[in-house]
């Protein structure tokens, strides 16, 4: 991780210094030729922070494609440039789980999307304390038992796991609900959304288009749960190549396998004969790729369902008795409503004062950003927070450290 430097105060001509804005104002952060202006959108109609870019050499404004969920507007914010590739936003008067955000402007994830789209791209990622649990990617041929295993996991640990609801152009099965099992969609609509950079990955599978939207993954992260993705091998490879750090598990049929898969698919009774045939034809190359591509860190054989489920739990560290009480380690950061921000290397200092029993309580929160992890399209974890309180009687300065 490189050195952090503070946002340029463009407005006042000061070369360095953090801009703390009052309501409706903007921060302006210069990186090379570009000035990133973050604040209310020009039309004032949206409830989220907007981004526009001023190119100094061409003297032109560019409105970038913005990936990810945007932070809601707030009573002002500070901007701190970090590692020359992202801008940390510290919001005033926000909830603990909504006060730190990162606008990625030149990270690997953003560069990938810039390459695909050929346009200016930025991406939002919410900042959290601690480490975000790694999402779990599960792949395997049709009928192998992915859906069954995922349902068992979600049933036993409802508060821990959240399912990433994919988009697909295939028709819903009898019991499937739109928005729960899949977002069932038109091909033309999904293709446009893919072009607009709304998907983390997508692939043509068994003659239909499937994909994971960034919003689907973020919805799970927002609920504080660990994300499970049921996607094919091509999709898993794309996720592996992205910045999303995940656990990749390939579920294999028992050997000899094809008969078992056919049996299971027939017994499931959700596909026509032709559809079953297509799935079985695709199964062999899929198993081959799953086992050999190096994408998957773990391979589980689903012969006996309960045994396979136990192995899956073991792999996810859920076989201990404390598993049911497991909580995600993600936490928000409780910042005072009004504060000022300064920076000392890897440490961002947030200062505030509150009157208390005739004295003034001075609060200093130190955010250590030296161990940031993850990033868009997932959370930015690894924020370390230390709070120091002191009291002043107004004459002697700080006199009581706690
Ligand atoms: N790449 C990708 N594959 C997906 C996604 N959602 C589902 N799939 C895969 O598409 C394939 C077909 O899924 P589905 O139609 O539900 O049939 P099933 O596998 O027979 O239950 C499976 O391999 C899924 O893992 C997605 O968002 N992206
Ligand atoms: N180990 C197993 N032994 C026998 N049947 C199984 C096993 N695992 C899953 N099944 C059954 O096989 C069918 C296909 O499983 P499913 O979870 O829908 O597969 P996938 O999601 O991988 O397509 C379902 O009817 C399920 O109940």
Automatic annotation (TrEMBL):
One of its GO terms (cellular component) is cytosol. Residues 133-317 form the Guanylate kinase-like domain. InterPro entries: Gal_Oxase/kelch_b-propeller, GK/Ca_channel_bsu, Guanylate_kin-like_dom, Guanylate_kinase, Guanylate_kinase_CS, Kelch-typ_b-propeller, P-loop_NTPase. Keywords: ATP-binding, Kinase, Nucleotide-binding, Transferase. PANTHER family: GUANYLATE KINASE (PTHR23117:SF13), GUANYLATE KINASE-RELATED (PTHR23117). Belongs to the guanylate kinase family. This is Guanylate kinase 1.
């Amino acid at each position: 991780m490189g050195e952090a430097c503070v946002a340029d105060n463009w407005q006042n001509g000061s070369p360095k210094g953090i801009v703390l804005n009052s309501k409706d104002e903007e921060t302006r952060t210069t990186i090379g030729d570009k000035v990133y202006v973050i604040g209310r959108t020009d039309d004032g109609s949206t409830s989220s922070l907007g981004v526009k870019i001023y190119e100094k050499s061409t003297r032109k404004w560019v409105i970038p494609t913005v990936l990810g969920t945007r932070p809601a507007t707030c009573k002002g914010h500070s901007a701190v440039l970090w590692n020359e590739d992202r801008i940390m936003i510290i919001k005033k008067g926000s909830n603990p789980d909504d006060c730190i955000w990162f606008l990625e402007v030149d990270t690997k994830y953003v560069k990938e999307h810039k390459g695909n789209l050929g346009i200016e791209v930025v991406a939002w990622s919410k900042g959290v304390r601690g480490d975000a649990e790694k999402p779990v990617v599960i792949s395997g041929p049709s009928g192998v038992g992915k859906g069954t295993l995922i349902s068992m996991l979600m049933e036993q640990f409802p508060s821990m796991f959240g399912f990433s609801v994919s988009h697909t152009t295939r028709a819903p099965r009898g019991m499937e609900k739109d928005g729960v099992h899949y977002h069932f969609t038109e091909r033309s609509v999904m293709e446009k959304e893919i072009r607009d950079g709304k998907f983390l990955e997508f692939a043509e599978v068994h003659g239909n288009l499937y994909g994971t939207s960034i919003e689907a993954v973020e919805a799970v992260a927002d609920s504080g749960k660990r994300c499970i993705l049921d996607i094919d091998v091509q999709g898993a490879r794309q996720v592996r190549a992205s910045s999303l750090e995940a656990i990749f598990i390939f579920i294999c049929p028992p050997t000899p396998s094809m008969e078992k898969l056919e049996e299971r698919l027939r017994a499931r009774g959700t596909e026509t004969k032709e559809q079953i045939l297509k799935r079985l034809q695709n199964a062999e190359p899929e198993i081959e790729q799953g086992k050999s591509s190096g994408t998957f860190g773990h391979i589980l054989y689903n012969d006996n369902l309960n045994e396979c489920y136990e192995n899956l739990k073991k792999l996810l560290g859920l076989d201990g008795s404390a598993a049911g009480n497991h909580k995600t380690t993600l936490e928000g950061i409780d910042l005072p409503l009004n504060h000022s921000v300064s920076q000392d290397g890897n440490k961002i200092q947030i200062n505030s004062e509150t009157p208390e029993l005739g004295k003034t309580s001075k609060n200093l929160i130190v955010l250590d950003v030296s161990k940031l992890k993850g990033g868009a399209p997932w959370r930015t974890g690894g924020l370390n927070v230390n709070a120091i309180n002191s009291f002043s009687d107004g004459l002697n300065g700080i006199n009581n450290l706690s």
